[in-house]
Amino acid sequence: MKTLKCRDAGFDCDGVVRGNSDQEVLEQAGKHAKEVHGVTVTPELAAQLKPLIKEDGKQR
């Protein structure tokens, strides 16, 4: 399972998105960002978020 914590992306938010792949996590993060923060995840932002995705509790 892969995870991305919203707080790691610079938001004051306890949201965590999970998925089986980086792509799945980024899709969930995009939905969360839009619904909760009013932010659209652009390809450039997605590229910045990808290194923040953790696998098995370890930073990649």
TrEMBL record:
Top-level lineage group: Bacteria
InterPro entries linked to this entry: DUF1059
Pfam families: DUF1059
Protein name as catalogued: DUF1059 domain-containing protein
Organism lineage string: Bacteria, Pseudomonadati, Bacteroidota, Cytophagia, Cytophagales
